[in-house]
Specification:
mainly alpha, about 90% helix, elongated
Length: about 160
C-alpha cells in the first residue's frame, strides 16, 4: 500500500472518530444542560428560555456558516476554531450560573454548532473526492453519529 493511501485511510479514520464524538456533543449537550441548570436551581421556564435562545442562535447561524465554510480554504483550522468556541461556551457553564453566563454560553455553543458537521463533510469531500463522497457520507457520516449519543450516555 502506498504512503498516500495509508495517509488517506488514517485521515478518514480520524474524521470518523471526530464525527462520532461531535454527534454526541451536539445531541447530548442540550438535555444534560437542562438537567444541570434545573439541579442548580433554575426553574423550568428559565431553562426553556436559555435552551431556546441557543437553538435560535443555531438557526440564525446556519446560512452564514455555510457561506464561511465554502469561502475558507483552511477547513481544519475553521473546525478547530469552532470547537474552541464550543469549549469556551462549555467553560462558561462552570462555576456560578448567572443568566449572563448561561446565555453567553448558549450563544457560543449555538453559534459553533452550524459549523461543525458541514465542516467535517467538507473535509471528507476534500479527502475522498466527489465520486466516493456520497456513499461515505451516507454510511459513515449518518450511521456512526446516530449510535454516538446512546453509547456515550451509557458510559456516563
Amino acid at each position: 500500500m502506498s504512503e498516500a493511501t495509508n495517509g488517506k485511510k488514517r485521515s478518514l479514520r480520524s474524521i470518523e472518530w471526530l464525527n462520532f464524538f461531535l454527534a454526541d456533543v451536539q445531541t447530548g449537550l442540550g438535555p444534560f444542560l437542562a438537567a444541570y441548570l434545573a439541579s442548580s436551581g433554575w426553574n423550568p421556564g428559565r431553562v426553556g428560555y436559555a435552551l431556546t435562545f441557543g437553538g435560535l442562535v443555531s438557526v440564525a447561524m446556519q446560512t452564514p456558516a455555510g457561506a464561511v465554510i465554502d469561502a475558507v480554504h483552511r477547513k481544519r483550522a475553521l473546525l478547530a476554531a469552532s470547537l474552541g468556541v464550543l469549549v469556551a461556551g462549555a467553560f462558561l457553564l462552570m462555576g456560578r450560573l448567572s443568566p449572563l453566563r448561561v446565555y453567553s454560553a448558549q450563544f457560543l455553543i449555538g453559534a459553533s454548532g452550524p459549523f461543525l458537521a458541514p465542516t467535517v463533510a467538507a473535509i471528507t469531500l476534500g479527502i475522498v473526492g466527489a465520486a466516493a463522497f456520497a456513499s461515505l457520507a451516507g454510511i459513515r457520516h449518518s450511521t456512526l453519529p446516530a449510535t454516538s449519543s446512546p453509547r456515550c450516555s451509557s458510559l456516563m
